[in-house]
Automatic annotation (TrEMBL):
Disordered, as annotated region: 57-95
Residue ranges constituting the HTH marR-type domain according to the UniProt record: 17-152
One matching Pfam family: MarR_2
Comp. bias intervals (Polar residues): 57-66
GO terms under biological process: response to stress
MF (Gene Ontology): DNA-binding transcription factor activity
Protein name: MarR family transcriptional regulator
Source organism, top-level taxon: Bacteria
Leader peptide range in chain numbering: none
Composition bias type Basic and acidic residues, residue spans: 84-95
Residue runs in coiled coils: none
Residue ranges crossing the lipid bilayer per the database entry: none
Length: 156
């Protein structure tokens, strides 16, 4: 990469590294845009679907606010505001967390489960159309390996 910035201790990206980084970003944007657009067409946002699907898989269809926020990479306050909007739509309810007096439990409501069950087939079709069906089995295996490596703790 040619730049007028002082290099100092910065390890600038080599051309092939920059191409890979930009390709990765383009893929993320394209897939997320497509699936988000498809979810919006059925009245849900990506975060709505993430919360509903996570709660549906949890024992008692319940999660702490903190666990869900960590899973989504959100702050607790951001998720709390989003949960309030979902609660007003009847998709979930918040109960006190007996283990944390300041926290709350997110609980999937019957309405939330119904909405998820109606949305899931369309969402899976969207994931197939924008991601799975465009790749070969070897590509999917490579992505799993990459995701596992990137999910590890960063090297210091």
């Amino acid at each position: 990469m040619s730049t007028t910035f002082s290099a100092g201790d910065v390890r600038w990206l080599e051309p092939e590294e920059e191409r890979a980084w930009r390709a990765f970003r383009r893929v993320m944007v394209a897939v997320r845009h497509g699936t988000a657009r498809d979810l919006a067409a059925i009245g849900l946002s990506e975060p709505d679907y993430e919360v509903l699907s996570t709660l549906s898989e949890r024992p008692g269809r319940t999660s702490t606010l903190g666990e869900q926020a960590d899973k989504m990479g959100w702050s607790r306050s951001r998720l709390s505001r989003h949960a309030s909007r979902m609660e007003s739509r009847g998709l979930l309810r918040r109960d006190p967390d007996p283990a944390d007096g300041r926290g709350c439990l997110l609980v999937l409501t019957p309405e939330g489960l119904r909405v998820l069950e109606e949305a899931a087939p369309a969402h899976v079709e969207s994931v197939r159309r924008h991601f799975i069906d465009r790749l070969e089995p070897d590509d999917l295996a490579a992505l799993e390996r990459i995701a596992a490596r990137l999910g590890e703790h960063p090297r210091e």
